[in-house]
Design a protein that fits this description.
The chain is of the alpha+beta class and 122 residues long. The structure holds guanosine-5'-monophosphate (5GP).
């Protein structure tokens, strides 16, 4: 699969500082910030700073340093927001079937309430 990255997507604009965000944590390769339309008491997005469209794109093409930094940032955010004890959910939508809205890799960290079953019937 060949991916084409659109540098005008909204998360690219956030990374360039063109749009504000409520940052939770920023590291060398990763940014975590609150979702603008939270669907749970905790709803944080974690994005790599590099130009990756989806999780599989990132895992295939990012450097080891970027991947480790990204994974460790997810863990640090969970710790900072205190979701681990009661449970939380990690979601990454990729492409049309998942209705990915923003074509820059992001995982959603959701928690702070019972989140129900993972998928609703279509
Ligand atoms: P997706 O459907 O692509 O997995 O999720 C995109 C997420 O980005 C949505 O949850 C949406 O609320 C969030 N989002 C869209 N635009 C902005 C924005 O400008 N700022 C922030 N913080 N979140 C955004």
């Amino acid at each position: 699969m060949a991916y084409t990255y659109d540098p005008q997507n909204i998360f690219a604009k956030i990374l360039r500082g063109e749009i504000p965000n409520k940052t939770v944590l920023e590291t060398e390769h990763t940014l975590a910030f609150h979702d603008i339309y939270p669907q749970a008491p905790v709803h944080v997005l974690v994005i790599p700073k590099g130009p990756y469209v989806t999780y599989d794109h990132f895992c295939a093409e990012a450097s080891d340093a970027e991947i480790v930094d990204y994974a460790r940032t997810v863990a640090r955010v969970c710790d900072m927001l205190g979701v681990a004890e009661d449970g939380w959910r990690l979601i990454s939508n990729a492409g049309a079937n998942a209705i990915q809205e923003v074509p820059h890799l992001h995982v959603h960290i959701l928690g702070g309430r019972n989140l129900g079953r993972m998928l609703q019937p279509a």
